[in-house]
Amino acid sequence: MPSLRLATTRPGEPEIFHSLQGEGISAGRPSVFVRLSGCNLACQWCDTPYTWYFTGHAADHRGGQFYSRSDNSVTLDVSEVARQITAFGCRHIVFTGGEPLLQQPALAALCNLLGPEHHIEIESNGTVALTPAFDAHVDQLNLSPKLAHSGNAAELRFTEATLAAHARDSRAWFKFVVASPADADEIAHLAARCGIAPERIMLMPEGTSPAELHARSAWLGPLCLERGWRFTDRLHIHLYGDTRGT
Q: Which homologous superfamily is 3-240 in?
């Protein structure tokens, strides 16, 4: 039976939890979240650095704190992951990370166990293509392409062919983390280059506290109106703060 590498809420305890979706087109929807460990990018403002910023990582993160891989990740058989998911009695599932699409074979096996009655939502950075085996299970793609302010090299955070393929997928929504008004031009250029429809673009303020989100929302809301893009907040930050398992 395949296994998944998961993030933890505390050493040895997988980060599988029932909460309200805080971002994107499904905001406010009760969901079971499964947070996977590992990422192919290294965003300097990432709000889940414990999923990838392990001791000895070569990149920089603004928090400056490395995390122990053994304390912050755990490997579980997909049958055990399925058992913990179904215990919540909620059929809307969100696979997040880290970058969950790095573990698609095991995710496909997990979805086979869960069955077709579950709605599968993916949160991804948009650099990884879906495999045919997992693609068949996916109902919704929440893609968050990274901009220059993430600190990732352009050739790592942007793969035109993959992002353009996602843009042609009717299941895909595109959520951009915005740190300054200047980010709008970069988003517009990327959308035009990859054929991302304006009605599928969402802008979300970067921040891990209600005060930061409020300050950026003051100018981000009008910017969305001007550009014809959607605005999405971070509901979970307002409700629970920047904490694991929420």
A: Aldolase class I (3.20.20.70)
